[in-house]
């Protein structure tokens, strides 16, 4: 290859002179698209973003500086009222509980589900079942758990299970709601028990008539009551339902057709101390030894205690944990799916090497699986924290009116103040700004974390 020199001769091996030519085309973006074309495509999204996000934020900030009517500038007075209001303070405290408990438990359960279902054949079916609650709305979930948390064990699933477990280990009372017949010589004493006013003597028979038991509650196999025979050296008597079907009969006496009350505990008490105890038989009769001579007869309150009715899940003490439980039921599946996707990308060689070196499954989980899943766990936790700060519908649907203040959260307080009976839209806008300020740090943390992940 030869090139021409200044004298006209070509010099072999020299590169040709560069050709300089100024381009008249407009610069393009990295993707090769003209900027105005990109702006045209982005313009509708930017307009919607400004209308649905930017404008409401700016308006809420401005509105929080005015009074309820929006005509008088009050500065930061709404914020001062917000932090001095006990209902708002309760909402803020409950939000703190939500942010700490709900994302942590949901992520932990999602991690456990993802790890445990990885090795079973029916893992896919289990994941589908756990994820199914995500397909329903918060409103529907609230209605479902309203039924789950019903106080009546015959209607509420939670109390049906709880009462079943309780009754397995604790004996229920024989005849709940029963009481002695009026003017029968027995008075109510401590602990719901009933004690005879007079002392009893050996060789005598003392009847203990009871009422207040609906016929439907009397056992179907109950026998007719029998009059106890007096026995020398013993205190005897009968415990029976002093009620004749169809009416009639004489009060305080055993009439035909009146039923025996079996299994009733009868105690002999002297000077506040129990000296003898027995239980009525199938025919209602009981017998106490000679130690009962000169004692008073007492029917302990355990004979008549009302059946255990479970826990008031939506009461003032448990309403917030109960609602958080329903939230976890919905979102644990979401956490499981994301963590399972991250678990699929974890190098299996590291786990196998650890097992070969003698590590137990617990050590592999704590020292290899969890550290490698840390980015995914952070994504799930932060996402749930943002979601929890906005929780509203579950609390609004589940919490009864009597305990709604105990379960209050900031989003619900915002709604009640802005659109409730006594509207305070200035304070409501201040709560909206506070919610925004609480969400922003979490979002900034999430964005920085994602940028660090891209650099890796």
Would you write up a description of this structure?
Residues 1-28 are annotated as: Disordered. Keywords: Cell membrane, Membrane, Transmembrane, Transmembrane helix, Transport. Residues 1-12 have a biased composition (Low complexity). This protein is α+β, with helices and mostly antiparallel strands and 456 residues long. 46% of the residues lie in helices and 10% in strands. The protein folds into 2 domains: 77-159 and 313-455, MetI-like (MetI-like fold, Orthogonal Bundle), CATH 1.10.3720.10; 179-303, no CATH class. The longest helix has 31 residues, at 86-116. It has 13 helices and 11 strands. Strands 4-5-11-8-9 form a 5-stranded antiparallel sheet, with no helix packed on it. Strands 3-6-7-10 form a 4-stranded mixed sheet, with no helix packed on it. Strands 1-2 form a two-stranded antiparallel ribbon. Strand 1 (2-4) and strand 2 form a beta hairpin. The model is unreliable at 1-9 (pLDDT under 50).
